[in-house]
C-alpha cells in the first residue's frame, strides 16, 4: 500500500533478512546474507530485519537500530506494519469463500454492495482482486503532504469514507480494459467479505488464516495505533527531519494494508498459501492466474523475476514508517521476508542485490529493482 504519490519518499519499502528459528548463541552470529542486509541500512534504512529459509535452514539477520538516536538493535522477532502484503490475506479469504460456494469471482460489486460504486454492475470481484476494475486509488488523495499525514495520524477512517474519496474521482479506465494498482479495490473486497460472512473482515482473517496457519505474531489492529510487542520504530520525513510515525491509526489502510506481522509469520503464511494449505486447487490456480502485461499480477499476489531467471511469488508493502518484501519460490524451497524502516528512499538497489544474493547463484549481478506496491 502506498499513501499518496506526493509523500511516497516517506513511505518505506521493507527488507527482512533471515536468522535461525530457535534462540541460541548461533543466532547472534552473522548469516550469509548479513553483508547484503548491512548494505540496505548503509543505503538509508535506519533498521532492517530478515528471515530466509532454505531446505530446512533458517537464517535471521538484523542491521541498524530500532530507534534513531539510540543504540538498541533491531529485534530479530520484531513486529512491523506489512502494508500491501495484507492484500494476499484479503484475497485468500475471498477465494476461500469462492471455494465454499458463497461468493463467485464473476459476481458484481453491485450484487454485494448495491449503490456503493458507480457502474458497480460492470465491475466484478475478480477485477477488484487483480486491479482491472479501473476504480481510482483513494490513497492518491488521502494525504497530500507529510505534515497532513502526521497531523491526522490518529484519525479513524471507515471503509465507506475511503471509498468515498475514490468515487469522487473519475475512473482510470472502463472495467477490464487495462490494469492499474488501486488500494480502493481491496477496501471494497474487504467490504464484500463482510457482507458475505456477516462478520468483520479482521475476524475472518483471524479465523480463516491467522489461527489455522499458526501465525502467532500476526494481528489485525483495527483502530489501534500501536505496534505491540518488540518492534523497530518507523519514520516519515517532515521539513528535513525524521518524525516518529510508529503510532498511527491503520484504519486508513483497512483490508488493503492494515496487518501487523513478523518475518517468520510472513514466510509461514506464503508457504501455506502456495502449498495449498489455505486454498483448494481451483482457487489457488485462480490466484496464480496473472493479468497479461508487465506486472504479472494475479489475485493478491504477483510474480517477481530475478536477473538469474528465477521467478518468485509474493507481494510488497509500503505504509508510513515501514516497508516489506515477502517472496518465495513457487515450491517454497526458498523463502525471504524483509522489513525496513526507510523514510528517505534510496535502498532499491541494495534490496534487489539482497534478493539476488539469497536466490541466485553466486556471482549474479543485480538488475531492475523489485516492484514496490
List the defining traits of the structure above.
single chain, alpha+beta, 7-stranded antiparallel β-sheet, two-stranded antiparallel ribbon, 12 helices, 29% helix, disordered N terminus
Write down the secondary-structure element order.
EHEEEHHHHHHHHEEEHHEEEEH
Tell me the strand percentage band: 15-25%
Task: Using the coordinates above, name the CATH class.
Answer: Alpha Beta
Radius of gyration, in Å, reads: 19 Å
Catalogue the unreliable spans: 3-26
* Main beta sheet: 7 strands, antiparallel
What is the number of strand segments? 11
CATH topology (fold) name? Beta-lactamase
Physical arrangement of strands within the biggest beta sheet: 1-3-2-11-10-9-8
> What proportion of the residues is helical, as a percent range?
25-40%
Class per helix and strand makeup: alpha+beta
Corresponding CATH superfamily: DD-peptidase/beta-lactamase superfamily
Q: How many domains in all? A: 1
Q: Provide the residue-averaged pLDDT.
A: 91
CATH architectural label: 3-Layer(aba) Sandwich
Task: Give the termini separation.
Answer: 6 Å
Number of helices: 12
Taken from the alpha-carbon principal axes, the silhouette is globular
InterPro entries: AmpC-like, Beta-lactam-related, Beta-lactam/transpept-like
EC number: 3.4.16.4
Domain Beta-lactamase-related: 42-325
GO molecular function, one term: serine-type D-Ala-D-Ala carboxypeptidase activity
Amino acid at each position: 500500500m502506498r499513501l499518496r504519490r506526493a509523500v511516497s519518499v516517506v513511505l518505506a519499502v521493507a527488507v527482512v533478512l533471515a536468522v535461525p528459528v530457535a534462540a541460541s548463541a548461533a543466532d547472534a552470529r552473522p548469516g550469509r546474507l548479513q553483508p547484503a542486509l548491512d548494505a540496505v541500512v548503509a543505503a538509508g534504512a535506519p533498521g532492517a530485519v530478515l528471515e530466509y529459509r532454505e531446505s530446512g535452514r533458517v537464517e535471521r539477520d538484523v542491521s541498524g537500530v530500532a530507534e534513531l538516536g539510540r543504540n538498541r538493535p533491531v529485534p530479530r522477532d520484531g513486529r512491523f506494519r506489512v502494508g500491501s502484503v495484507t492484500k494476499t490475506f484479503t484475497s485468500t479469504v475471498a477465494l476461500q469463500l469462492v471455494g465454499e460456494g458463497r461468493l463467485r469471482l464473476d459476481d458484481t460489486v453491485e450484487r454485494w454492495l448495491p449503490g456503493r460504486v458507480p457502474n458497480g454492475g460492470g465491475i466484478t470481484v475478480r477485477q477488484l482482486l487483480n486491479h482491472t476494475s479501473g476504480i481510482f486509488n483513494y490513497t492518491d488523495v488521502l494525504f497530500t503532504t507529510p505534515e497532513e499525514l502526521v497531523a491526522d495520524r490518529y484519525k479513524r477512517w471507515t471503509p465507506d469514507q475511503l471509498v468515498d474519496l475514490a468515487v469522487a474521482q473519475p475512473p482510470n479506465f472502463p472495467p477490464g480494459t487495462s490494469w492499474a494498482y488501486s488500494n480502493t479495490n481491496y477496501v471494497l473486497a474487504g467490504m464484500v467479505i463482510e457482507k458475505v460472512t456477516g462478520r468483520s473482515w479482521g475476524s475472518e482473517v483471524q479465523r480463516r488464516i491467522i489461527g489455522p496457519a499458526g501465525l502467532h505474531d500476526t494481528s489485525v489492529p483495527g483502530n489501534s495505533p500501536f505496534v505491540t510487542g518488540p518492534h523497530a520504530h518507523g519514520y516519515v520525513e517532515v521539513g528535513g527531519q525524521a518524525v516518529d510515525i510508529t503510532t498511527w491509526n491503520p484504519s486508513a489502510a483497512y483490508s488493503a494494508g492494515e496487518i501487523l506481522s513478523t518475518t517468520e509469520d510472513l514466510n509461514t503464511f506464503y508457504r501455506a498459501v502456495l502449498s495449498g494449505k489455505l486454498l483448494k486447487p481451483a482457487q489457488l490456480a485462480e490466484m496464480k492466474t496473472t493479468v497479461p502485461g508487465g506486472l504479472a499480477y494475479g489475485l493478491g499476489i504477483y510474480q517477481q523475476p530475478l536477473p538469474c531467471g528465477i521467478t518468485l511469488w509474493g507481494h510488497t508493502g509500503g505504509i508510513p514508517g515501514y516497508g516489506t518484501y515477502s517472496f518465495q519460490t513457487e515450491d517454497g524451497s526458498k523463502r525471504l521476508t524483509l522489513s525496513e524502516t526507510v523514510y528517505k528512499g534510496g535502498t532499491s538497489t541494495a534490496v534487489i542485490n539482497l534478493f539476488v544474493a539469497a536466490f541466485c547463484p553466486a556471482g549474479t549481478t543485480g538488475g531492475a529493482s523489485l516492484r514496490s506496491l
